[in-house]
Amino acid sequence: MGRYVIRRLLWAALIVFVVTLLTFVIFYVMPPGDPAIRFAGKQPTEATIREVREQLGLDKSLPKQYYTFVERLVTGDAAECPQGVEGCGWPGLWISYDSRTAVRQEIIERGPRTISLALGGAILWLVLGVSIGIISALKRRSLADRLAMGFALFGISAPVFWLGLLALFIFGSEGLGIDAFSTGYVEFSSDPVGWFSHLVLPWSVLALLYAAFYARMTRGNLIDTLGEDYIRTARAKGLPERKVIMKHGLRASLTPVVTMFGMDIALLIGGAVITETVFNLQGLGNFAVNSAASADLPAVVGVTLVLAVAVAVMSLVVDVVYAYLDPRVRYS
């Protein structure tokens, strides 16, 4: 198991390296024209372009530029931080040309909002989706199965922005008038109750969408698994039905769910744009969209790298959990 984890760690490090190389090529090399003009913002002066070219090392060769790009990521950019700009450090993600603040500081401030949204919604949709999928698989063609699949169909079909606006209308001032269920974000350290109440609606909206996918996948996998020969053998041995389902059937059927769960959490770090916008959370997804719209390339690069690291880390976690659930994986 230890050797398997080491191999996966090395593979994750390689993925992050390849992503940094692709990010550099896409944002620095591939676009036509002078990169300094793109990074200097809209309608820059000649002095600003020269300053950006010197700061980013664009007057050097491409290999030297990439080395500087990686060096700043690894060692930090505090020594190069312009006067009056706070938040530079490790990892070095440079300065946002839109807000003139350190991209690293923006990510640190916005990251907890997106992480809180992703993790809370993930726990809710995992419990809800897997539970509904199990009940539907065990009660095939019954009323409970039809209601569960109807819920899944509704969750898959309903747009996220519509669900968010509907939730705000029902629980907000126009509906039940519950002031606790409002938009915005409250720090957990300052007000845990406010933090929870402001995230209940976003969690529920995300959970309704993703739980539908997890319910259908759990139902299909569990039905297929319960038809395997070793399940019939376990029942023939006289094992209790609860043990047959929970220990033998569910464990084997959840491996695809684990893979999808890890990737969904990682992608939500930068992909929950609609939910963040509807509920005014101002997280990383919202930051990335606004940065792309304003051609704030350092911010876009920073969020891209953070998302790449999140995907690599969650892939590693998924591989380890997958190896635990199915010991055959670690020997393959």
Question: Could you please describe the fold and organization of this structure?
Answer:
There is one protein chain. The radius of gyration is 24 Å and the shape is globular. The chain starts with a helix and ends in a 7-residue tail after the last helix. It folds into two domains: 2-88, no CATH class; 111-331, MetI-like fold (Orthogonal Bundle), CATH 1.10.3720.10. The model has no long low-confidence stretch (mean pLDDT 83). The chain has helices spanning 2-29, 35-39, 46-56, 62-75, 103-138, 143-157, 160-171, 192-226, 229-236, 241-253, 255-271, 273-278, 284-293, 297-325. The protein is mainly α and 332 residues long.
Give the tags.
single chain; 332 residues; mainly alpha; MetI-like fold; 2 domains; 14 helices; globular
**Whole-number average pLDDT?**
83
Number of domains: 2
How is the biggest beta sheet arranged? none
Give the name of the CATH superfamily of the largest domain: MetI-like
What coarse outline follows from CA principal-axis ratios? Answer: globular
Question: What is the name of the CATH topology of the largest domain?
Answer: MetI-like fold
Residue stretches low in confidence (pLDDT < 50, at least 5 long) are: none
Q: Tell me the name of the CATH class of the largest domain.
A: Mainly Alpha
* CATH architecture annotation of the largest domain: Orthogonal Bundle
Q: What does the secondary structure layout of this molecule look like, with pairings?
A:
Blueprint: H1 2-29, H2 35-39, H3 46-56, H4 62-75, H5 103-138, H6 143-157, H7 160-171, H8 192-226, H9 229-236, H10 241-253, H11 255-271, H12 273-278, H13 284-293, H14 297-325
Helix pairs in contact: 1-4, 1-14, 5-6, 5-8, 5-11, 6-8, 7-8, 8-10, 9-10, 11-13, 11-14, 13-14
